[in-house]
Structure formats: C-alpha cells, structure tokens
Amino acid sequence: QVQLVESGGGLVQAGGSLRVSCAASGRTFSNYAMGWFRQAPGKEREFVAAISWSGSSTIYADSVKGRFTISRDNAKNTVYLQMNSLKPEDTAVYYCAATPSRKNGLEWMQVRYEYDYWGQGTRVTVSS
Length: 128
Prior knowledge:
Blueprint: E1 3-7, E2 10-13, E3 18-25, E4 33-39, E5 46-51, E6 58-60, E7 68-73, E8 78-83, E9 92-99, E10 117-118, E11 122-127
Parallel strand pairs: 2-11
Antiparallel strand pairs: 1-3, 3-8, 4-5, 4-9, 5-6, 7-8, 9-10, 9-11
C-alpha cells in the first residue's frame, strides 16, 4: 500500500507560478512511476505529466508542455509539479498517482487506469 498526500495548491493569477508536491509513504517510493492528473469541475480527470521510477524519463500532456515540469526526489519520497505561465484553464483539482508497472515506452503512463494509488488532491485556481 502506498499513501499519497498532495500539497501546495492555492489561488494564483494568470501568468503566475505554483509548485505542488506529493509526499509518498508506505512502500519503496523509487519502485513506482508517478503521475499527475487534474480534474476541472464538470470534466473528466485528465493526464498532466508523469515520470519514471528513476526520474530519467518524463511525459507531458500537450496542453502543459513547455509550461509544467515534473520531477521527483527519491530520497524525500516526493514528486513535484512546477507550473509556470498558468492559465485560467489550468484551474482544477490536481491529483498525484503511483504505479508499480514498468512497461516499454512512456505513452502508457498517460492512462489513469494504469495507476493503483491516488492522493486526495490539491486545488489550484488560476484567476484571470
């Protein structure tokens, strides 16, 4: 079992930056690939970014590419999502997720059903 706790959400103006964090506990963090997803009101949960267990590989949704950066610190059991140039459409609850799967390529990391563990989410609101 892996427990995930997100933090760092809040209210920010358009064009601003915010970093959300996800602290993991319960199992060996470095055994898990990690992902960030988000869910806006009335919409489906969507993929944002993911990072391999080692941190050497990352993948991003087209909507955030070039603005968001995912990273991890295995010594601190934490994954981060640095969000720059925020837009009102980035407003959502952001969830981190963990999966022990190790498959070829990165595309599978975009699929939410690949993840076994989820946090409770942290709300990010971007004002215009």
